[in-house]
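Give me the fold.
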Amino acid sequence: MECRHNKLAVGERCPACGRGRLYRLPPGIELRLDGNALLAAVRYELEKLRCSACGQIFTAPLPIEAGPEKYTARARAVLALARYYLDLPLYRLESYQALVGVPVPDATQWDQIEHVGNGTYPIFKHFAQRLRQLHGTARHGHRAPGRMLNRHDQAALPKYRKADETQLHSLNTGRSYRPATDWVWSEAPALISAEWFEKAQLQLQRNAEVARKLYQPSSHRYLLRTLVKCGECGLGCVCLRRPGVCPMAEYLY
């Protein structure tokens, strides 16, 4: 904000000494800091009129400066910066906004942040495509050095059943899932070599065999221990005995 003299102007005689003339200098800077919430809201109370005969309700329109959307682009950008730049969890932002009188649930914050991601995704996709073109021109189409675990190396990894993509679209989560054609594939070097991976799998098998041999319960050995496996993850199930209400009854879990 620019502040000017009310009684003095450039070229006037100095009121202090009366000999010189006033000329302009670079302006001085004074700051006044104020606090505000990350999200500030404006509450509009719309007048409503109802007909006593037909019951029709007439609501006053919003002013033009209110805009068509509830969350502006600036509000969505602030949420994205608070989450991914300031590293604030959404539940903490929810409690803070409730403290300052503008409550915004964490799920709503995520939906608004996703709007920001959807808006910037085409730019990211364009840069990724340009990077692939430059990478192919510089290396004549050859892939970057570095061995990765292939399908054969990953065969020993435990497999967890994931939900079908069609089922994800039917869930009422409020989130959108991009098709496989919009995915951006990238390469990264393997964290460990295939040789070390095979050694680790062999050691895990040895540990499981030793643990099975050392298992000596005090009584009533469970014969199906580790033989009954979960159909989802493939891990072996163990059995825990719990006495029932009757001293003669026991339950297996």
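Confidence is low (pLDDT under 50) at residues 138-163.
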